[in-house]
Write a structure and sequence with these properties.
Elements lengths: L1 H26 L8 E8 L4 H19 L7 E8 L4 H13 L5 E4 L3 H14 L3 E3 L5 H8 L7 E3 L4 H24 L4 E8 L4 H14 L3 E9 L7 H9 L4 E6 L3 H11 L5 E6 L5 H8 L1 H4 L3 E4 L7 H14 L5 H20 L4 H9 L33 E5 L5 E5 L12 H7 L3
Parallel strand pairs: 1-2, 1-3, 3-4, 4-5, 6-7, 6-8, 8-9
Antiparallel strand pairs: 10-11, 11-12
Helix pairs in contact: 2-13, 3-4, 6-7, 13-14
Length: 428
Amino acid sequence: MERNKKSLVLVIGLSVFTLLAIISEGSAQPTLERSMIKMGIVSPLKKSYGIAILRGAEMATKEINDAGGVLGSKIQLFTADSEGTAPKAIEVIEKLYYADKVDVIVGAYTSEEATAFQEQSAKFKINILYHGTAHMLDNKFKSNPEKYKYSWTYVVSDLQGADYALSHQYELFISAIKKQIGLEKVNVAVISDMALWTEGFHAKNIDYIKTRPDCKLVYVGRTGRDAVDFTAELTELRAKDVQLIIFTTGFSAGYSFVKQAYDIKIPSMITGTNLLSWSIDDFIKAVGIDAAAYNSTNCFMTLPTTPHTFTLIERYKKVYAGHPLLDVGLAYNGVKAYAKAVETARSLDHDKVQKAIEKLRLSEGEAWGCKEFWFDVNHRVHVSPTNGLIFFTYQFTPTGGVNILDPPEYKKGDVLIPPWVADKWKKK
């Protein structure tokens, strides 16, 4: 009888052990619908910024997959070249949706592409997270939030950028010129290239300078995006005694203008928004350290602000060499945001993930260049130095480095005035 009891206990014990083993094994398996999450990466892959988008996605994907994936499911990337145009973006998104059956799409660079991304998200009812600066995307979303609810923009808008420059950046340079040189009134030029995203900047810059009693707007100009000769403009700027140039550009004209302004030592400070200088290594290589020095712009992502951003930038340098472009961090955040939303929703269902993205918060230790990463009511990334994406102003130094000038928490230097500007205008 005693032997039977021991046998029964042994059988029960083995059964419980087997059951626990089965449960344990099952918990290690993917809990999503599939063991592979298919993510489409659409960008201008023959351009440096398109490659940057892919690299950001690769970095985030490796980090997620190395940690076990999303609820056990690994991310697989499917790439497609948008060539920077809306028609091509439409074509490749349709291919990714119909042929590759992707669960999500990340990418874009130009505002023209972004308009296609937004419309395709509505057409296919698939979540698309993308780079789109033009505020027309926000207007479209506001006009029909239900239609465009799968559309998510992870970069600041042109108007957000302009508002930051007006509120924080220009004051730094106007004050520095007045204080360090001794001027009571600063002669200002506003110049922008002719692109969709610069229109909001251009109008706001003009209005801002006109309202300042300590500034005089003496020159306004628009230039071709790929202009190569600014001799006429620079000659007129010198004749009008311009001391501060607010220059807004995102294309190769930015290289030409900065290089030529330095070559003739135009006696003016240059600030504004120069997207080309956001790629620090490329900018210095294109114009030279001496010409790059003293140029200033506002930006985000490209410099180490938060501890996690510093770690990611160093990781990028080891894997790819050089300094990361802006779009590396943007795409990284896009991939991380989608992955966390899937984890929260515990599903790849587009609607369940969409609702999860609406409530999403990535902490400082999860996101690139942010105190927190989340989307506002217009499905655009929230911008704030305290609980959002960090906008900052920086200036190149004569040694080839950069100093962050704003926000104060990240400040690493003061405004530097070129000696040829100080020598020209400083009161004896």
